[in-house]
Amino acid sequence: MIHTSMMHSAESLEAELERLRRCPDVESAPPVLCEFSVEVAGDPAQYAQRLRSVLSAAVNLGATADFEEDTVPVDEVPDWFTAIGSTDDAQVPEFARSGRDAYTSYTGGNPWELQNWLYRFDSDDDSRGWEWWDITRAGRGKLHVWVDSWGEPSFGCQELRWAAYTAGAVWVEGPVVRGSEAWAGEESLNARP
Prior knowledge:
Elements: H1 4-7, H2 10-21, E1 32-40, H3 44-64, H4 79-82, H5 94-107, H6 114-119, E2 131-139, E3 142-148, H7 158-166, E4 169-179, H8 180-184
């Protein structure tokens, strides 16, 4: 197994941020990617934007924050995501509340605490076994979230599942290892270069 701390270098985090901004070139794809099937309530494009915005903030913190501190700054984290931990549910948007409840029902666990979730993006933490690749349409109300797990079929990804649910998913299944041609054949919700 590859040690993930070696995978999340400054260069790889910058490349991941670029993939969060726009769809990568087909030629840059590794031979295999991992696919998560996601069913969303509401507009898939808005869902994709929310998911990319929170992951962009977290990956950027992974590249820039001092994780030796007790807390990392949350200024760049979208307000809807920081509100999830609020004791006042009225502060939490409906899509995030529903996603939080779906996640806890799926896992049987508790919601993630914001700082604990952000610390999974520390480049020295070896628990995050994936990097963002893309998000594509997979049918009416269904999307595929693609990540690079360096060919590993099983890897740490609960922070991704949490983000996927709280961005507005009603159901998340996966990961499944697939040839990258499966990703290349689908319509990206990011602009192609």
